[in-house]
Amino acid sequence: MATQVSQITVLSPGLLGSSVARAVRARNMAKRIVVWAHRPERRKEISRQHWCDEVAETLADAVKGASLVVIAAPVDYIVSLAGEIAPHLRDGAIVTDVGSVKGHIARKAHGALGAKGYFVGSHPMAGSEKTSWTHGTADFFEGKTCFVTPLEATAPAAASAVGTFWKHLGMNVVVVDPDKHDEIVSFISHLPMALASTLSLVMARKDVAWRGYAGGGLRDMTRIAASDPRIWRPIFEQNRSAVLEAVKEFQNELKVLEVAIARGDWDKVTASLDRARTYRDGFKP
Amino acid sequence: MATQVSQITVLSPGLLGSSVARAVRARNMAKRIVVWAHRPERRKEISRQHWCDEVAETLADAVKGASLVVIAAPVDYIVSLAGEIAPHLRDGAIVTDVGSVKGHIARKAHGALGAKGYFVGSHPMAGSEKTSWTHGTADFFEGKTCFVTPLEATAPAAASAVGTFWKHLGMNVVVVDPDKHDEIVSFISHLPMALASTLSLVMARKDVAWRGYAGGGLRDMTRIAASDPRIWRPIFEQNRSAVLEAVKEFQNELKVLEVAIARGDWDKVTASLDRARTYRDGFKP
């Protein structure tokens, strides 16, 4: 992907997919950007966008000329879309996705493409609780991490091409086994979502005025709970065991803090807060 | 406090105390602003600030001319400072604080002042993990909530004067019983801190590279864990029972979500995420 390719296709562009198309356009990385969306009204809206040379009416039309296809659909549609496009792919076409879970998708999509193309799963760690394509930007991925998750069976050249693609969009590429990826994101992404939602549910039972009293802490701690449940349901579904393990570790850690507070062991409480602070201070500003 | 008073004194100015002094200066609410800090080097630093007309060497000197004294010290120093200044207060002087817990402080400080002045506890819901006086600003309190927590025995005129003071600093004043205050903040402030710290402790055991992979979710969810443990220790200490109750409610709610995920009850998971989202969407942007 280092030089300009003839065609990149983005399927189901939402926040991430439209950002991919905008970023590709801004960097002049493809002669043609073709987009497909499931709903006719969405196709109509997008056809007026500068980052889209053609809106295809069918998946077959969308992918037939593409050297790279980016499936930007929610996690539960990726495998079936891979299966549907397989017969129409150009020889040697590379297919990737932007889904938040990788083990299930990487194995199934690899199988679905068969000898028709190369599937290499991706997970750009960029997102927002605002998921519409209208919020996408050309610099959306810059400076962020992108997991690229080849299987052992994946052709190294295909994995390398997908990594290069994301690097050209400004991302720090981390190549990792799909199951290891799922473990990592269960802690750094899915657990925070579970906690933000749980805190919101606790607060939802309280006097509604309390929300207006809160400072930045509660606001920050619940922000991602505003995310779309239809996107998150299949993430929890496909990453169930890793999410449950992360939740369990959190519960155990919270129990330790609870017991220290209950016992009035303030030195232990302080030591815990100190270790937590040291961890948090390690984030770049 | 509607008109300019002759002297306002701020004791132990950190982030909040220096912001009080800056806001009072910017609004010309006092002819003189006097400050006292425990450490000589702190007194020397502050003496060069435009929001400080005099840095007193002793508490007695600091408060003797003040109609309003704001104790901006950490929660565990407030009661003893109230006792130390009591003999030196002007007749009818009003004393308030900015502590995050109110039940214990309101009762003890009221008793410590006796007939020498009026104590009315305050808790401005403004803060940051950066607690130095150097980060204070004149508009720090604008648009935020301030709890004012008179006891039944508190003179209504004193409570009213303290409420008016914070209103002049741009705050939305909520008058509430000190114990009710402690229940509210155990949920909207102390629970979020406990969760942010716990999540940080879980993450601190993982490969340090994971921190660099994280998106905005983990960053937001751990931000307040960077707060100073020396400030938080006495907050958890003085509000122990309310904090434990809030932690218990959170644990129960998380257990419900965990069980739904473990059972694969995705409709229930989705319904929970939906209710959480509705709550979060109620925050002003």
In DSSP terms (H or I, runs of 4 or more residues), the helix count of chain A works out at: 12
Output the structural class of chain A. alpha/beta
Main sheet properties of chain A: 6 strands, parallel
Gross geometry of chain A: elongated
Q: What is the CATH top level name of the largest domain in chain A?
A: Alpha Beta
Quaternary organization: homodimer
Portion of residues in helices of chain A?
Answer: 40-55%
At CATH level 2, the architecture of the largest domain in chain A is 3-Layer(aba) Sandwich
The H-and-E topology of chain A, N to C, reads as EHEHEHEHEHEEEHEHHHHHH
For the record, give the distance between the C-alpha atoms at the N and C termini of chain A, rounded to a whole number.
32 Å
Mean pLDDT of chain A comes to 96
Radius of gyration of chain A, in Å, reads: 21 Å
Low-confidence parts of chain A, pLDDT < 50 over ≥5 residues? none
Query: Order of strands side by side in the largest beta sheet of chain A?
Result: 3-2-1-4-5-6
| Fourth-level CATH superfamily of the largest domain in chain A | NAD(P)-binding Rossmann-like Domain
Number of domains of chain A: 2
